[in-house]
Specification:
By secondary structure, this protein is α/β, with parallel strands linked by helices. 37% of the residues lie in helices and 19% in strands. It contains nine helices and nine strands. The strands form two sheets. The chain has a six-stranded parallel sheet, with helices on both faces.
C-alpha cells in the first residue's frame, strides 16, 4: 500500500516513527512526471531499504526567470500509480506554500567551483534552489540514503557536498543513466520535443559516444574532444550550451585526459534544454 502524504509536519512525524522502530528509509526526491529513470532509483531504494519515500514536488526555487516552471509536467495521479506498482511506501507531495511559507528567509547555498560552472553558469540561482529544497526534504523525510541519477551528475555532486558540509547523517547514492533504445537519456523534458526534434536531441548522445570512443582509443587532448562534441551537436541543428571534459570529483576543466573524466554536454533543441554525460575511465 502506498500512502500519499501532503503536509511536511505529517511526513516528519511518520519518518520519526519509522526511525524509532528501526526501519531504514530510502528516499527518491523527484519533480514528478516519473519515467524509467526515476523507476531505476525507486527500485534501488526498495531493494536496499525497509521503507521507500518518493517526493513529488515541482520546486519553484530552482527555476529561473523565463524557464519552464509553469509548463513543467504535473502528473501526480500517474506518478502515484507508478509508485504503487513499484512498492513505494509513501509519496510525499507537498504544495509550494507548505514548503516555502511567506515568512521563510533562510536559504542554503553551496559555494565553490561545483556550482560556478556548467549548469551553474547557464542557470544562475538554480543550485541554491536545489540545495535549499534538498536540505528541507532531508530534514522532513530523515532518510538513511537518498538516490540521485547520473544524468544530473552536477546536481549529485552539489547535494553530496551539502550533506558532507552540513553533517546530514545519511548517504547519497548515484544511479546510472537510463536511456531510450536509441540512446536518448530519459528525461521528463523529452515530452516537450516536437516531431522532428528527436533526431537533433540524439546528437547529445552521439557526441558523448564519439568523445568516449576517442578517449578509449587513446585521445588525450581535451580541446580535440570538445571540438568533436561541439561539431556533432551543432551539425544536428541543436544549439550548444556547453561541452566539458572535467574532473569527475571537482568538475575542474581538464586540458589532458590522464585518468577518469566526466564528458558532459548541454544543448537547446528548439526550446528544450537537455543535458547528458558519460563517466569515462581510459585505459592506463
Amino acid at each position: 500500500m502506498t500512502d500519499v502524504i501532503r503536509y511536511p509536519a505529517e511526513m516528519s512525524r511518520i519518518a520519526g516513527e519509522l526511525r524509532l522502530r528501526g526501519n531504514t528509509i530510502g528516499f527518491v526526491p523527484t519533480m514528478g512526471a516519473l519515467h524509467e529513470g526515476h523507476v531505476s532509483l525507486i527500485r534501488r531504494s526498495v531493494a536496499e531499504n525497509d521503507v521507500t519515500v518518493v517526493s513529488v514536488f515541482v520546486n519553484p526555487t530552482q527555476f529561473g526567470p523565463g524557464e519552464d516552471y509553469e509548463r513543467y509536467p504535473r502528473t501526480l495521479d500517474d506518478d502515484v500509480e507508478i509508485c504503487v506498482q513499484e512498492g513505494v511506501d509513501f509519496v510525499f507531495a507537498p504544495q509550494p506554500d507548505d514548503m516555502y511559507p511567506r515568512s521563510m528567509t533562510t536559504w542554503v547555498e553551496v559555494g565553490g567551483d561545483l556550482v560556478n560552472r556548467m549548469c551553474g553558469l547557464s542557470r544562475p540561482g538554480h543550485f541554491r534552489g536545489v540545495a535549499t529544497v534538498c536540505a528541507k526534504l532531508f530534514n522532513i523525510v530523515r532518510p538513511h540514503t537518498a538516490y540521485f541519477g547520473q544524468k544530473d551528475y552536477q546536481q549529485y555532486l552539489v547535494v553530496r557536498r551539502l550533506v558532507e558540509d552540513l553533517n546530514f547523517p545519511m548517504e547519497i547514492a548515484l544511479v546510472p543513466v537510463v536511456r531510450e533504445k536509441d540512446g536518448l537519456a530519459r528525461s521528463s523534458r523529452n515530452r516537450y520535443l516536437r516531431p522532428g526534434e528527436r533526431e537533433s536531441a540524439l546528437s547529445l548522445y552521439r557526441a558523448l559516444t564519439k568523445a568516449r570512443d576517442a578517449v578509449l582509443a587513446g585521445e588525450t587532448d581535451a580541446s580535440a574532444l570538445l571540438a568533436l562534441m561541439a561539431s556533432e551537436i551543432e551539425s544536428a541543428g541543436a544549439e550548444l550550451d556547453y561541452a566539458v571534459v572535467a574532473d569527475p570529483v571537482t568538475l575542474e576543466d581538464k586540458e589532458r585526459v590522464d585518468g577518469p573524466v566526466l564528458l558532459a554536454v548541454a544543448a537547446w533543441v528548439g526550446d528544450v534544454r537537455l543535458i547528458d554525460n558519460f563517466l569515462v575511465d581510459p585505459p592506463q
